[in-house]
Amino acid sequence: MSMKPNFIKGLHHVTALASDTQQNVNFYVGVLGLRLVKQTINFDAPEVYHLYYGDYEGNPGTILTFFPFAGSRRGKKGKGQLTYTAFSIGIDSLPYWMARLAAFAIDFEGPKTRFSETYIRFEDPDGLGIELVANHLDRRKGWDSGVIPAEHAIKGFYGVNLLTHDPERTVQMLTTSLNHRLVQEQNAYLRFEVEGASVPGYVDVQMDQTALRGTPGAGTVHHLAFATASDESQLELREALLGQGVQATPVLDRQYFHSIYFREPGGVLFEVATNPPGFAVDEAQESLGQSLKLPAWLESQRAGIQGGLPSFTKPSVFPQP
Ligand code: ZN
Fold it and tell me: Which of 215, 225, 309, 206 is nearest to 274 (CA)?
């Protein structure tokens, strides 16, 4: 029985790099049927969007976000990266998704089996690794877009795959500071889950060290964010990390959550984000993602910022061709 406080509640979001805004929106809303829950900018590079996709409410543990740097070069999946982000679908939903991807001429691998689950694997238009995992554990409802039948909609994350330079030390950080525990082990994979998890949010660490080093760029993940309950738990965790010699940043205001960042020993950039305040802090739940939102400190520069961003049309979920 562990006496450590549960600083981490599960996965919060995954942030990746893309090369084209419209193509990105078309894929994640149009094809995968996620909801665009926030349209804002990269606070450190205001000429670039920050787009958030998730379930209807934009719940932590459902959010995949992108910085689409126009025309940026493709990166390469490899060591030092989160290589595949797995979304959760219903136990009977794989045939639906295989037919849907085929109709949009998107190649996929599988169905494959890992641990006791069946999944398919494919890449987004920039090469970002995505999986859909059929399972009966997940009681969350996906966004009912009116196009993809609600029972087949993506429910949120199932887990992430980490391929790091030093998996043993990655595991050590997960199981000590970040209160994960080993739940399964198969071939070259160790599977971790946060203590007391209520929804799937597995972290699979690939122990195989034959892979090549990853290269950052479009189609690669920038960072993985874990969820913490409050500003207090975040500060306590930050103190604990600093005490262990981990160089965590000061708390940054990301408008929809507060964040600290640090690099895990195997090279992947980790973030710990607070669950509150969430995406409904600056627009109504029913109109999330419809217009460009800026933090108060950038509002006075809105005209200039908006003028520098590419325009894009926000598709509804595409009917199957
Ligand atoms: Zn983030």
Answer: 225
